[in-house]
# Entry
Amino acid sequence: MLYRLYQPEDFSPLYAIEEACFEPPLRFGRADMRRLVRGPGTAAWIAAQDGQMAGFAIVEWTREAGATIAYIQTLEVASNQRRQGVGAELLRRLEASAQSAGAHLIWLHVDAENFPAIRLYEAHGYRREGKEDHYYARSRPALLYAKSLEPADPRASTL
Ligand SMILES: CC(C)(COP(=O)(O)OP(=O)(O)OC[C@H]1O[C@@H](n2cnc3c(N)ncnc32)[C@H](O)[C@@H]1OP(=O)(O)O)[C@@H](O)C(=O)NCCC(=O)NCCS
# Structure
């Protein structure tokens, strides 16, 4: 599996994975997805094998009150590529990009019924910090998870 940063020609296969993974209202619209993959203030990672996209993930960071905070916008693996460690590696890449951007904290929303994703985040040290009722839709709550990040190694560049 090859892991690399997003390039403009990745948009169609990336959005096909988005459509396969999520129905509205959980699905990003095309315009929002284009904004996210372009940045600035984001890193979009692609997993690909034999020229086929296997998954992607996007992290966004913002500076608030003098501190940089990272937020995982999405993490998606094609159904035929799951349970092979792709999601875990994409998550590590997001964290490394967030660290390089100076973030000391990374957080996310996850559908309260998305057990595979919840297991993945918990296995990688994310702690549940709260719940937002009606976040995705009426009676569709989200759980909030967060993880502290170590300062980045100044010799590494993964933005
Ligand atoms: C969540 C998702 C990204 C996981 O990707 P993946 O490539 O299958 O994950 P990995 O193979 O790296 O799994 C890593 C760990 O996550 C947990 N996990 C992943 N899928 C799981 C499942 N179906 N059931 C239970 N645990 C699961 C396990 O702890 C697993 O480690 P293990 O395989 O050693 O047991 C994938 O299921 C997906 O794309 N789902 C649809 C999109 C989505 O819901 N994204 C999350 C948005 S918040």
